[in-house]
Prior knowledge:
By secondary structure, the chain is α/β, with parallel strands linked by helices. It has a single domain, classed as 3-Layer(aba) Sandwich (Rossmann fold). Helices cover 35% and strands 23% of the residues. It has 5 helices and 8 strands, in the order E-H-E-E-E-E-H-E-H-E-H-E-H. The chain has helices at 19-28, 76-82, 97-113, 134-146, 161-174; strands at residues 6-12, 41-47, 51-52, 58-59, 62-68, 87-93, 119-124, 150-152. It has a 6-stranded mixed β-sheet with strand order 2-5-1-6-7-8, with helices on both faces. The longest helix is centred in the middle third of the chain and has 17 residues, at 97-113. The protein is globular and about 40 Å long. 42% of the residues are buried.
Amino acid sequence: MNSMNQKKICILGMFGVGKTSLVERFVYNKFDDEYKSTIGIKVCQKLLSPIETDQHKIVQFNFLLWDIEGAEVITPQIQNYMIGAHGALIVSDLTRPDSISVANNIVEAYQQTAPGTPFVLAGNKFDLIAAESENIQQLEELGETLKAPVLLTSAKENNNVEAAFEKLGLLIASS
């Protein structure tokens, strides 16, 4: 595979929103109910399925997934982890509205560090809330404001996990 197709992807969000669970579901198709806080970063990789762009070109990316420790405030150290990113998955916990509010600040920091690169908003733990939840509406409004796609995911139930990363791959291919 051409190294040009290797893409650094940052997984960002507050502590406990399910970033590591989403990565482990995506890469290893595993889910563990036990919470383990990420300290610093954990990097893994996965080769995406081929993607057809709007221009009918087929591309395939090897995602280097940087699972970055959670934070309510983006520190200079966390911002340094974002340098060189080609895209990001910004994760919120749909059972915690504060994590959706913080997502906007995370997006700002990400856009300052990696301007012009795409990101996807993932509302995780969708299996734990009602489909008409105000938290979903809040995340979808944030997506509209930021002109970013929103996917409702569940690492536990494996809902929309692959789709979130595929969407990010398509955005990278189209940018």
